[in-house]
């Protein structure tokens, strides 16, 4: 028999899925809590027993997406310890695969970022979430760099910020012109050059 | 006496200025043609004799911004011919200065890009505008590279796409966390490394 806890987690997951679809169609501001409930097949009561607000739901989406990405990178670590050269390939491959629908995810995350630029409370919550993700990625990069017997000439945190900035900017271009710029092409072309430029053997 | 043409161009400029303010406050979707007219002190008639739609007005803003940037870069060319090493400094300096209010410009251009991802007609117009800008920048990069006696190992167009992607992604991070990431820092740190990695002496 399904426990109450599992039922709750299932409700939450279905609300998140419904929200992704509704946000992608109507935008963050255009989608109401009612729209999300209708899509997921739940009442407003079910929504508010899981999320305090639409903002909180989007932040939970960010959390789920970044958790999944970090888990996938961590799963690669043992392999990377023996073949450090594949780090960038592995990470770049993950970036492509992580969001099953890059377009939907780009719309939602960009819209919420714009919302945060006008709403200090949303900005605080988003920045906290992004900082946690960056910190986790930074620790992974430091760990991999050390395992590979390398030292970086820039803080690992700056390299992580570069990867995120380039990926987000390139994704926008690829979504606008998929034929002119295949997804991941700028990252695959330029990130290895940067990594080469900033790494030196430790000893 | 002011000619009709000059009066028209003045009306257009004031509508554009008003629109920048209203879009930044209320967003592209939240701002109506009425809001823009009220802010600029004109009637709807004046608006529609200058722009067919809100979309057309935003595209005119893109055009004005990119024209200004290209003019500034072209003005630097004579200096660059004698001191090619300063190319990147000059371009990066311009990126900082170009949009007098980076925040407003980021909000408007990002919102219109999201709109274009949902509206094929807006996408066509935006892509055409962005392609013209990229082409102009690409020609400038090719010209500067040649003047400097260098050859690029990647197409100049790809390097231009990288600069735009990194700048747009980094701007989003700097606007969210200005103290953690000063504007332009990622570009100044990493673009010189990439330029170094892709350029070789021609002969």
TrEMBL record, chains A, B:
Pfam families: TetR_C_6, TetR_N
UniProtKB keywords: DNA-binding, Repressor, Transcription, Transcription regulation
A GO molecular-function annotation: transcription cis-regulatory region binding
DNA-binding region: 32-51
Keyword DNA-binding: yes
InterPro entries: BetI_C, Homeodomain-like_sf, HTH-type_TetR-like_transc_reg, HTH_TetR, Tet_transcr_reg_TetR-rel_C_sf
Domain HTH tetR-type: residue ranges: 9-69
Name the UniProt record assigns to this protein: TetR family transcriptional regulator
């Amino acid at each position: 028999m399904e426990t109450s806890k599992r039922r709750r987690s299932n409700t939450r997951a279905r609300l998140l899925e419904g929200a992704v679809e509704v946000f992608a169609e109507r935008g963050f501001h255009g989608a109401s809590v009612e729209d999300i409930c209708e899509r997921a097949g739940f009442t407003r009561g079910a929504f508010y027993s899981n999320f305090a607000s639409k903002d909180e739901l989007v932040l939970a989406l960010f959390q789920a997406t970044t958790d999944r990405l970090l888990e996938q990178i961590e799963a690669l670590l043992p392999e990377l310890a023996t073949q450090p050269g594949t780090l960038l390939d592995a990470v770049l491959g993950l970036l492509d695969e992580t969001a099953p629908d890059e377009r939907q995810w780009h719309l939602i995350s960009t819209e919420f970022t714009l919302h945060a630029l006008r709403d200090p409370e949303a900005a605080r919550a988003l920045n906290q979430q992004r900082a946690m993700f960056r910190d986790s990625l930074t620790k992974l990069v430091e760990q991999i760099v050390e395992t590979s017997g390398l030292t970086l000439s820039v803080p690992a945190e700056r390299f992580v910020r570069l990867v995120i900035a380039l990926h987000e900017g390139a994704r926008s271009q690829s979504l606008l012109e998929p034929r002119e710029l295949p997804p991941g092409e700028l990252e695959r072309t330029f990130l290895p050059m940067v990594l080469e430029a900033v790494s030196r053997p430790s000893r």
